[in-house]
Amino acid sequence: MLQRILPERAFFLGLLFERAAARHGGVPVTLDRPLDTFPERGTDLNYVDLADIIDDLAARLWEAGVRPTERIAVYKGANFDISLTVCAAARIGAVPVPLSPALGGEIVDELLRRLDRPWLVTDADKLDGDLRGVAVSELTSGVLLAGTRAHASGRSLTDLDAAPRRPPVRLHPSQPALITHTSGTTGVSKLMVHTAQTLFHRLLPQQAIAWPVRGRERVALCMSFVHSRFFHSLGVFVNYGNPMDILVDPEPDSVGPIFTRTRPGLVETHPNNFIQWEDLVDAPGAPLASVRYYSTTFDAIHPRTIQRLLGASRRKNPLMVQLYGQSETGPISGWWYTSKSAQTTDGRCVGIPLPGFIRVRVVGSDGRPVRRGRTGHLEVRSRGRVLTYLGEDERYRGQLNGSWWRLGDMGYLNRWGMLFLTDRDIDQIDSVDSNLELEDVLLSRLDELLEVVIVASPSGEPVPVVATRRDAPLDTERWKEAVHGLPPLAEPVQVRFTDLPRTSTWKIQRVQIRRMFEEGTLPVIDRETVAG
Predict the structure, then answer these.
(1) pLDDT in tens, 348-365
(2) Domain 435-519 classified CATH 3.40.640.10?
């Protein structure tokens, strides 16, 4: 069946919705906000509409001068038309480079330099904001404006409405087809080069995992529009013909009313957004009552969050499906949790390596495999691994150990082959066996915590940086009870949840937090002020 759905060993983004529309027709797709460039289309669309929008955008890009194999960066305000523009660029054989709207101008400046004069699709707000001071005319082959507001620095796509439609251009499956960037948790993002073949090898296991959901459940996606995972989620569910909700705003107050109206059966977002969505458990209208499947990747998810979300579903036997992976490799391992198993789950367990698709091993500092149960550096083999880091091939090859790829995570495989994460290599603290495990314990003991991140002080002391629900003051007595029996920790430092530096996939930027703490620039909440 999978071979019939995916007849080619390649995933062509430019043909995704066209093929889905031909196969499934006008399957509904609901947005939480109109597209910036086509606001007149509204928020209630379908596969046919989206295929037409992509075809239209592709014609406009061609009319503007974009040609096959040319790179085209997409850096604009957060909205689903980021992904549609990527598909449109791929449709004419260009190589799209989606850049997170959360990236600062200085990082975009550096990435544009690495891309060697790409085309740039942006908007007037970015040009007046993050890109102010960036020499976009010198760094690009041309600036094209998304949205409806004009700007002197670029040519508006809305003005190219008479552009004739064109047949699609397909590059060879082994040629660069998409360039995404890493999360940037440790500095300037790296640019990763994908081909239609490597994208396919990531799509295939995800398509197999989603087989029980094919066409049957409404799917809600609230994820970074620039991450390869989002395009694969689209690929999975559009191939299967599932109705969809595509959401920009992850705030519970925004998500709740939409879920109450559309009643999705599967929802996917980032782990740290699921923590926020715990507020939906008791929300009016029971917005999570219809959810049979919760899906997440990017990071391990806290057991408390799993239990609360599954408990909010009124479906029979709801599941939390978790994938662990890396931007460079795609999905690595996976597991599922039921309401019963979630009560005893170890938050550091990220499942079993995907059989038939991925191989995982644990090695010591000498690069040699260690015994089962021993903690070491995680390495994988994957046919979905990116070709290189654009402009940083030496850095890319520095993570190779023969044919094995060093993930940068520490962990172990138990006797049954289950994979456990302990820490990132660079986040280890001598006095703590696992920062991540300690954070899980604190979150399980204190429901009021939205986030806790343990970083090392300049002297090496573990410092908990915490954020609470609605930024309520941390109860010091409850904190003392929660840390009883744990390794010695410094006094907690409280910040607002929205002030925690994050990546486009809501991952915590631990290195940035540590740096800000050392520099005294972390925006700490004054407890007395908050309490007053």
Answers:
(1) 788 999 998 999 999 998
(2) no
